[in-house]
Specification:
- The protein is an alpha+beta fold.
- The chain folds into 3 domains: about 30-180, Roll (Ubiquitin-like (UB roll)); about 190-580, Glutamine synthetase/guanido kinase, catalytic domain (Creatine Kinase, Chain A, domain 2); about 595-725, Four Helix Bundle (Hemerythrin (Met), subunit A) (Up-down Bundle).
- It is about 50% helix and about 15% strand.
- Strands 9, 10, 11, 12, 13, 14, 15, 18 and 19 form a 9-stranded mixed β-sheet that branches. Strands 1, 2, 5, 6, 7 and 8 form a 6-stranded mixed β-sheet that branches.
- The relative contact order is 0.11.
- The structure holds adenosine-5'-diphosphate (ADP) and magnesium ion (MG).
Length: about 725
């Protein structure tokens, strides 16, 4: 595409008028959750006995009988119809990307040749979407063919357009999870049980522990017209070729800069729509890379936060198009500048309002704080390889280790205060640390921990799992992934660590050791055990890679090999013991992840090959011919010596083009061959490894030459919008 045409395309996108924002002066507090069947609406639309029953189902997980479900469905239908809904759908999160839905109208025959609007408890509670087109990783062949979706009452239903959306889990008929939500709910249940018991050492009135998640969603926006002219972006979500823009993020002028007007209008529209759907949007800003932005809500209970993130991602795609943009959620849409992550801020809190990962006022609070910090470290230490497996993908692999992204080694940064504290505990002996004055009074020789850990704003940006004052921030999660994958592992692993902790403490208590002393003893033991995961230094350095390996941490960088952690014995044992996933389910999940990896790389390789052969080489050849014509004409018109001098540069250019082009042609053939060889491998794991080891490096190698050609070839001829055009919204 010539540059004039390219700008024409931008212009077209430009002409699109942003969606009209609401005229009214309505405030967010007035329209928040307008389209959500909240408790308040339940109270309004349901008989009071049904409302009470539903609260019990939501809060305590008690079971739902059909009569109650029918009554709830009736109230929901009435509410949804008042908002214009005519359909309903079960909304679930299969192991592909994104969410799935299948709409059914509220209509039913009335028996007299007409129709009535109907929505029953049965339709609310369970549906049977044809499971056969969703990935199940062999579960279907091993078990039962059909799957069904079941209502998750803990996540409220909502209305989008004319459809009542019902959050559900998706499982096979024999009960195996076919989605992210079923194991997530089990992991949350496990961590609730384990953490409640530990919290009760300190606060006997605690009856529930809630896992909280506050995600920060990073994304890029590009002009819709330019996007349409980049087949690679369209098909893979990232640019497979493209030379650096002379200016990108080196001036640090985008981060927290003023938001371009068109983008601000998109953000506003997005926020209003998200707030109406109950997503508590809070923060928006420019990110480090040009055209990169972030949206973060206020944290919520993890189950709901996961649903809200999925909802937000689909809203982002939709709203962006109304503003002449495309939203890119790929972790590395552009080489050479920052990629996008989804930081997952995670913590535990009790139903009595205590933040378990935040320091408190009393010595007991401090010991509780240390317990939860150290047991989290125990979990991350033991399952560092699995945590990495939970966030790795063909796409996130491009991001990790570059820009602001954490490296492919999981470690935890704690900040100076907590590090010093752990060191102090580790080095002192029991009697120095704890003394009992009178019956209850406990004195801990633990330096006072300020309630606000201010110096934790001295962020270590390279740490994948950083403590940030009252929570941990898991930064390695990819921008387009479902955060449930990471949350299943994290909550499950912490549940296991806390269960182990309690067993050991109880053993000491049974031997007559006072409980606080027993806790302190085990905490100190665990500080030592989990020490290798604690790292305050530069995660990018080569020394860290060597040291991390010596510490026994997983330093694997190849995505297919990282995925193997899903079947490590300690993984299988943790998921079995915490009742989260069975071995068969884990095998299925791994199979799907490997398959997805292969397909992603395969698609990239195909589109890349097409672009090289159909776009790049023809254009390079055309430009080469133009140069050759020019050379001949000069030769005809000027004396030999003079012509020679005049042609020197052009001849050199022709040579360079030739060299790059023949490299590209030859290597593209190799790329096809590498795919062919890989495709013949029967073991899926080995096939994924072959794609990683042979196909991916070829893509990189060929790209280098394409990008060089981009610098040489006449801009008028270059067929693809360039980075400098894609990256700066006008
Ligand atoms: P930053 O970019 O500085 O890390 P943001 O304000 O963008 O911070 O996002 C921080 C996220 O962490 C928000 O979603 C916030 O609600 C969430 N958060 C704050 N406190 C907690 C907590 N105790 N547990 C979980 N998430 C939290
Ligand atoms: Mg953050």
């Amino acid at each position: 595409m010539s540059s004039s045409l390219r700008f024409h395309v931008v212009g077209k996108a430009f002409e699109k008028k942003p969606v009209e924002l609401p005229e009214s002066k309505e405030r967010p507090s007035e329209y928040f959750a307008k389209y959500v069947f909240t408790r308040q609406k339940m109270q309004q639309y349901l008989p009071s006995s049904v409302y009470e029953k539903m609260c019990d189902v939501i809060d305590n997980g008690s079971s739902l009988d059909l009569a109650t479900a029918n009554a709830v469905a009736e109230g929901m239908k009435q509410w949804a119809m008042e908002l214009g809904a005519t359909h309903c759908t079960h909304w679930f999160q299969p192991l592909t990307e994104g969410t799935a839905e299948k709409h059914d109208g509220f209509v039913e025959h009335d028996g007299r040749g007409g129709m009535v609007e109907e929505f029953t408890g049965k339709e609310l509670v369970q549906q049977e979407p044809d499971a056969s087109s969703f990935p199940s990783g062999g579960i279907r062949s091993t078990f039962e063919a059909r799957g069904y979706s079941a209502w998750d009452p803990a996540s409220p239903v909502f209305v989008i357009g004319d459809t009542l959306m019902i959050p559900t889990v998706f499982i096979s008929y024999t009960g195996e999870a076919l989605d992210y939500k079923a194991p997530l709910k089990k992991a949350l249940h496990a961590v609730n049980q384990a953490a409640t018991e530990v919290a009760r050492y300190f606060y006997p009135d605690v009856s529930k522990v809630i896992s909280n998640l506050g995600w920060e969603q990073e994304y890029f926006l590009v002009d819709e017209g330019l996007y349409a002219a980049r087949p690679d972006l369209l098909m893979t979500g990232r640019t497979l070729m493209g030379h650096d823009s002379a200016k990108n993020q080196q001036m640090d002028d985008h981060y927290f800069g003023s938001i371009p007007e068109r983008v601000a209008s998109f953000m506003k529209d997005l926020e209003i729509q998200a707030l109406k759907l109950g997503v508590p949007c809070k923060t928006r800003h420019n990110e480090a890379a040009p055209n990169q932005f972030e949206l973060a809500p206020i944290f919520e209970e993890t189950n709901l936060a996961v649903d809200h993130n999925m909802l937000l991602m689909s809203l982002m795609h939709r709203v962006a198009r109304h503003h002449g943009f495309r939203c890119l959620l790929h972790e590395k849409p552009f080489a050479g500048i920052n990629g996008s992550g989804k930081h997952c801020n995670w913590s535990l809190a009790t139903n009595t309002g205590i933040q378990l990962h935040a320091p408190g006022r009393t010595p007991a609070d401090n010991l509780r704080f240390l317990t939860f910090i150290v047991e989290t470290l125990m979990a991350v230490h033991k399952h560092n390889a699995l945590l990495k497996a939970s966030i790795i993908s063909a796409t996130n692999a491009h991001r990790l280790g570059g820009g602001e992204a954490p490296p492919t080694i999981i470690s935890s940064f704690l900040g100076k205060q907590i590090s010093d504290l752990l060191k102090h505990l580790e080095e002192s002996d029991d009697d120095e640390l704890i003394s009992f004055a009178g019956k209850q009074a406990l004195s801990l020789d633990i330096p006072q921990i300020p309630e606000l850990l201010l110096d934790n704003t001295d962020r270590n940006r390279t740490s994948p799992f950083a403590f940030t004052g009252n929570r941990f921030e898991f930064r390695a999660v990819g921008s387009q992934s479902n955060c449930a994958a990471a949350m299943i592992v994290l909550n499950g692993a912490v549940a296991e660590a806390l269960t182990n902790f309690k067993e050991r403490v109880d053993r000491l208590i049974a031997q007559g050791v006072p409980s606080m002393k027993a806790i302190l003893k085990i905490v100190r033991e665990d500080i030592r055990t989990s020490k290798p995961i604690h790292f305050e230094g530069n995660g990018y350095s080569e020394e860290w890679r060597t040291e991390a390996a010596a510490r026994g941490l997983d330093v694997e960088q190849s995505a297919p090999l990282i995925l193997d952690a899903y079947l490590r014995p300690e993984t299988v044992e943790m998921f079995r013991r915490m009742h989260i996933l069975s071995l068969a389910e884990l095998e299925a999940r791994l199979e799907i992840k490997q398959d997805t990896y292969i397909k992603k790389v395969q698609i990239e390789a195909r589109i890349f090959g097409d672009l090289c052969i159909n776009h790049i080489i023809p254009v390079a050849t055309r430009y080469q011919s133009q140069l050759m014509d020019n050379i001949h004409r000069i030769r005809e018109a000027f004396p030999e010596d003079e012509a020679k001098a005049m042609n020197a540069d052009n001849i050199s250019l022709v040579r360079q083009i030739s060299q790059h082009a023949s490299f590209i042609t030859a290597q593209t053939e190799q790329l096809v061959e590498a795919r062919r060889v890989a495709n013949r491998i029967t073991s899926q794991r080995e096939r994924a490894i072959a794609y990683h080891d042979t196909v991916v490096p070829l893509l990189e190698r060929i790209r280098y030459h394409v990008d060089k050609l981009e610098l040489i070839v006449d801009d008028e001829l270059w067929p693809l919008p360039k980075y400098r055009e894609l990256l700066f919204i006008r």
